[in-house]
Amino acid sequence: MNTSFTYEVRLPSDYNRDQQYPVIFALHGMGSDEQDMLRLMEPLQSDFIIVAVRGPLVQGSGYAYFQIKSIGNPVRELFDASVQGLQQLIGDLSSEYAIDPARRYIAGFSQGAIMAMTISLIMGDTIKGIVAMSGYIPQFVKDEYPIEPGTSLSVFISHGDQDHMFPLQLGEDNANYFREHARSVTYVPYHGGHHVTAELHDQFQLWLRSDAELAANHTKGLNA
Fold it and tell me: Where is the Phospholipase/carboxylesterase/thioesterase domain (predicted)?
């Protein structure tokens, strides 16, 4: 497979190629790497295929999906390239593994959240849901990207009230924007900074399990 991304796949212990599993594409923040997201998603590995994707750009001791000119202002060429590459990767891995096309999720923190929100807005029914923690939607995405989210898109957005990188208002703006573009939106403002708290960790795991179960039941109902 031709891709510019390094990634690691974790399969459920009972993985059977003849079944279909929900998948989480996990995207890290600037200066981090895929191992951070694997640790964050580890409790979900019994039920989900986990794909942790490393950004293609070196950033300090870690990696990034794009560089920025200033806060809220990504370098457009790098941003576009990562969006396109991630779309391709999601499609390729969906064919390679026993992934349920009705239960593809993206979970991201900071830069990963920015990527997750953007991809969910342009990939239609390819994406069932996202967990977007402490990010924002670039204005050029809203103005210039072809916004076509799927009709069943579910969104979990969280943001800390002490976030030193991105103010809480951005989280509220994200939630309001998705209320116009998604089937359901869960918005979780929490007391904390630019990090994932233990309580938030529990909340997004519960949300992912619940949404994936609802999606599976819906599919069963359609096939009954």
Answer: 18-197
Contact, 189 vs 168, CB < 8 A? yes
Q: Where are the domains of the chain?
A: 6-223
Distances from the Cα of 201 to the Cαs of 19, 76, 125, in angstroms?
28, 31, 26
| pTM of full prediction above 0.85 | yes
Beta-bridge partners for 8: 52
For 118-132, give the DSSP string: HHHHHSBTT--EEEE
**Distance of alpha carbon 176 from the chain centroid:** 18
Q: What is the DSSP string of 190-220?
A: ESSSSS--HHHHHHHHHHHHHHHHHHHHHHH
Strand, coil or helix: what is 5?
coil
Give tens-digit pLDDT for 138-181. Answer: 999 999 999 999 999 999 999 999 999 999 999 999 999 999 99
Write phi, then psi, for 175 (nearest 5 degrees): -60, -45
The CATH code belonging to domain 6-223 is 3.40.50.1820
